[in-house]
Amino acid sequence: MSKEKTSLLLKRESADLGVLSVNTDLSDVTFNAITPSSPSSKFTKSGLDQVNPATCPFRGVVLSFWDNILGPRTRHVWNANRDNPLPSDLLSHITSQVLSCEICRDPYKCDIDFKFYNLPHKGVVVPAFVFSAKGTHGMSVHSLYVVIPNTELEFYLGIHETLLSCFQRLTRKLRVILDKNPFDVSVDVFKKYLSDCVRTLSLLHNTSLATNIALADTVFCRGHARVLDSEFLARCIASHLMTFGRSLVLGDTPEKINLVLNTLCMFNSESERRCSLPFCVKDPQAYHHDIYLQGLLKGSDNSFLPMTELLVSSYPTTIIDLTSRDVRQMQNYSEHAFQRFATLKNELICLQYGNFEELLVQDQDLINSSVFPDTLVQTLVKEIFELPGSCCVQAAYIAQFMRILHKRAQCLIESVRAESNEGQVLVKSNILRKIRLDLQLNAEGDFLIVLATAEKLKPGLYTFLKPHRSLDRDFKNIDMYSTKV
After folding, report:
1. Which of 104, 127, 393, 405 lies 20 to 30 Å from 70, alpha-carbon distance?
2. Do residues 180 and 242 both lie within one domain?
3. 131 within some domain
């Protein structure tokens, strides 16, 4: 039947019956097989530099934005594997999921919101960061999200805090770069920062410190006891615990560096070990913030401290120099939080004025660990070498020490809760001395070790008891149960 006859039949039946009832074979009717692509489906794409797709746990990173006419749109894709790029239908689905509920968001809002999507029907999990930035037609809502196969969900949960810190910093940089540069230039500049971050997170997936460290690979083993004397070892461990389990080890040989890293790793939790890196001789990496344990080989390339990365870390860090036998640490947590904010701010100011190089920060005044004498770790190191040479006995003794440390931290939290009336009043110095006396924390180092452990259990406790020196304690009340630096 011809098209003209079919059209007349439809008109006649529509006029007679008031409905359309087509009872004909449409196999001969030809349709246009090519449909024009929608503008909302167009996006640019590129790869990530020096990222091995065979070992990278991510499929790619995507920048999308909200278009007031076309709705959620994908703007640029950084594929981890150029030969296997992310499909357009998957990107369209994820972008719609992330941005569709942001239709009422204020485009001038400065906050960075985090979202997490588990899409088993698509085989991916997606951590996303929603923020406002300069779009194609002024300010608009954007999102920067990472596409991770759902087979790597357990790995992602282990590095969630590290990934969150890294991408929040990247998002702040991207927002400034987009505001001051054309989009093509912004993509090229941001690609370097993004590649460094993805490469570091890929190392955590493949070469992080094992969750179960063998005691034979630590200084506690009789064969390695001569590498570090007991006094220096106790100072390293004590300072490591004071700085929330974060340390940078500098040495002249990779063997010594990794030996100390394995030793300090015994005092970190399983998730913290997952976010720690051994020193790799074949592929040495630069220091990266918010990695718990890292090592650098001293020499012409690493003769200076990476102060910028140390300052933008969420917690202060211990610097252990194996050649000079120095154990130093950053300022306490309250001071470090202010320095971190200032460093991040200066980093964005440099980007705003077109300086895309790494921010250079002058060396800070570091604190020698001997300023905070302790008895907890001194006793631990003395007794652990008096135990039989069995690795199982020594490992169990260290585990028991960490359990007692957490119990003391919980006691400190409950004592401060009771004395401060649930955080409504400040704890006076005489009350704090009484709490320390009751918990047998007379030594300053012992108190700082327990306080750092308690801070991880109850964020805000450290700044409540030891606020920044610029805060007036008589007029500013800090609620430890609602404040998190």
Report:
1. 127
2. no
3. yes
Q: Is 37 exposed, middle or buried (0-12, 13-18, 19+ CB in 10 A)?
A: exposed
Same domain, 130 and 261: no
Interatomic CA distance for residues 152 and 404, integer angstroms: 34
Closest CA to 150 of 54, 55, 57: 57
The whole-angstrom separation of Cα 175 and Cα 133 is: 5
Length of the chain: 485
Q: Say if 425 falls within a structural domain.
A: yes
Separation of alpha carbons 271 and 161, rounded Å? 10
Is 406 exposed, middle or buried (CB count within 10 Å of its CB: 0-12, 13-18, 19+)?
middle
Cβ-proximal residues to 97 (8 Å cutoff; 6+ apart), any chain: 117, 119, 126
Could you tell me if residue 162 is inside a domain? yes
| 327's tokens | 């154990």
Determine the Cα angle at 424 with ends 422 and 426, to 5°. 105
> Is beta strand 60-67 parallel, antiparallel or unpaired with respect to 138-149?
antiparallel
pLDDT, tens digit, 9 for 90 and up, residues 55-72: 899 999 999 999 888 889
- Give the structural domain span for 3: 1-35
Cα–Cα distance, 27 to 13 (Å, whole number): 21
Give a yes or no: residue 154 inside a domain: yes
Of 324, 344, 371, the one marking the end of a domain is: 371
CA 146 to chain CA mean position, Å? 13
| Same domain, residue pair 76 and 29 | no
| 337 pLDDT more than 70 | yes
Q: Quick one: which of 109, 170, 108, 111 has its CA closest to 139? A: 108
Query: pLDDT of 3-12, one tens digit each?
Result: 454 454 444 4
Residues 301, 266 share a domain:
yes
- Pair (249, 355) in one structural domain: yes
451 and 476 in contact (C-beta within 8 Å)? no
pLDDT digits (tens, 9 = 90+) for 273-321: 999 999 887 677 788 999 999 999 886 554 578 889 999 999 999 999 9
Tell whether 51 and 16 lie within a shared domain.
Answer: no
**194 and 46, same structural domain?**
yes
Domain tally, the chain: 4
Statement to judge: residues 335 and 236 lie in one domain? yes
Residue for token pair 């008895």: 375
In this prediction the pTM is 0.85
Which of 356, 371, 386 represents a domain boundary (last residue)?
371
Q: CA-CA distance, 124 to 151, in Å (whole number)? A: 8
Phi-psi group of 123: left, alpha or beta (phi > 0 → left; psi -120 to 50 → alpha; rest → beta): left
Identify the pLDDT of residue 3: 47
Contact at 8 Å (CB) between 276 and 208?
Answer: yes
